[in-house]
Amino acid sequence: MLSPADLPAPPPAPEEPHRTFLENAVEKARYYAAASGLLTLADDSGLEVDALGGLPGVDSAYFAGRPSNDEANNDKLLVDLRDVPPPRRGARYRCTLALALSDRVLFTCDASCEGRIAESRAGSEGFGYDPLFLVGSGPLSFGQIDPATKDRISHRGKALAKLRAALPGILEKLGTEGERER
Q1: Three-state secondary structure string covering 86-155
Q2: Residue 175 has what pLDDT?
Q3: In a domain? residue 5
Q4: Active-site residue flag, 44
């Protein structure tokens, strides 16, 4: 597995100008697939808060402005929700994956992890909004659960499980197409 930094001439990060996770994931997958010539997986992920109409959404990393700052983003989220009672703090982490080869998008999927936003930070695991995101209806934040559990139940873990299930068929189809081209 390679990251963009592993390429001989790493391309600059692509813009993410779109308003949906799907559009941004597809943009990144196509961009890096074209730059590398390799089968490329990209994601776009973020936090959607019901009381904020789905914000921060695709702007999750920059909710408090640029450059990205996890502490500032968490502070802004707490301020924006200060008058919202706990029962109205529903939220979800969302992840959209896109798999591309050259300019072809071979697969996309979306997954989410439901929860709610706490009134204060708890835990030191994870990153981003993890100390504020209470998983499901339980008392623990993503910042408090062990990484292996988070990987299994998170939005990214669920999306990757969908990809893992679809991958044999995707690869078989690519192999069949390659044989026809010969």
Answers
A1: HHHCEEEEEEEEEEEECCEEEEEEEEEEEEEECCCCCCCCCCCCCCCEEECCCCCECCCCCHHHHHHHCH
A2: 82
A3: no
A4: yes
CB 58 within 8 A of CB 18: yes
Report how many domains make up the chain: 1
Which pTM does this prediction carry? 0.90
Judged by DSSP in three states, 34 sits in helix
CB atoms < 10 A from the CB of 123, how many? 16
Please answer whether residues 17 and 23 qualify as being in contact, where contact means their C-beta atoms are separated by less than 8 angstroms.
no
- Reduced to 3 states, what is the DSSP secondary structure of residue 130? coil
Place of tokens 């924006």: 80
The token pair at 115 is 């929860």
Q: What is the CATH number of the domain that holds 76?
A: 3.90.950.10
Q: What is the mean pLDDT of the chain?
A: 93
Would 62 be classed as within a structural domain? yes
Q: Which residue in 6, 43, 44, 75 is the catalytic one?
A: 44
